[in-house]
Design brief:
Number of strands: 8
Largest sheet: 5 strands, antiparallel
Helix content: 40-55%
Order of helices and strands: HEEEEEHEEEH
Strand content: 25-35%
Mean pLDDT: 79
Distance between the termini: 126 Å
Radius of gyration: 37 Å
Length: 206
């Protein structure tokens, strides 16, 4: 038995239903494209963020590896100097005393400060600044070291702690070194000028 032919109204309604399904399909396709684009952007952003974090961490590690902080071992006649970072290897140092104290600069390939190096400056400091007992002597230390296979130069101001004894009419001045304290970093070419300026700031009458 043949089915009756759809009426014009039924054909019109069927066409409308098909158009609705087509529109829904188009909308779903657009949504799919948007979701895919968002997923791609999210993946790109995440990769870029991770790369930036890795680059920042690498730069931080490079900065840290090039930053030298000295520590001192021992006391008395000699302070042995070493970097806090065990991966850094000191190759040589120049130690600058305030030039107005007449001690001059000391070149050494063994990282250390000897009491005899300080003694002349201390004797002059006693005369100029009347430094009693426990005291501190500013020095600038320019250090040549290797970090991660790269040769680096670092310069900083330090205070050398010491105790003076003796002197007077019946004996010479004795110097006992106590330790080393970081003051701040300087440019290598400005080391002498900066330690001179620090001494004069502390002892303007000298």
């Amino acid at each position: 038995m043949n089915e009756p032919e759809p009426t014009a109204a039924e054909r019109k309604e069927a066409a409308a239903i098909r158009r609705r399904w087509i529109n829904i399909g188009e909308i779903l396709a657009v949504i799919g494209v948007v979701i895919s684009a968002l997923a791609l952007w999210n993946g790109y952003s995440e990769r870029k963020s991770n790369e930036e974090e890795r680059a920042a961490e690498k730069a931080k590690q490079s900065t840290v590896s090039r930053l030298l902080i000295l520590k001192a071992h021992g006391e008395g006649r000699r302070l042995d100097l070493a970097p806090h970072n065990g991966e850094q290897a000191i190759q040589g140092q120049t130690i600058f005393f305030p030039s107005m104290l007449g001690a001059g600069a000391i070149e050494t390939t063994e990282a250390r400060i000897e009491a005899d190096w300080v003694k002349q400056a201390v004797k002059s400091a006693d005369e100029k600044a009347k430094t009693p007992g426990d005291a501190r002597m500013p020095v600038a230390i320019v250090t040549r070291f290797v970090s991660g296979g790269t040769a680096v130069t670092d310069a900083a101001l330090y205070d050398v702690g010491y105790k003076r004894s003796g002197g007077g009419l019946f004996g010479g001045t004795n110097i006992e070194l106590r330790g080393l304290a970081l003051i701040g970093r300087v440019k290598p070419g400005e080391a002498q000028a900066r330690v001179d300026a620090l001494w004069l700031a502390r002892h303007p009458d000298t």
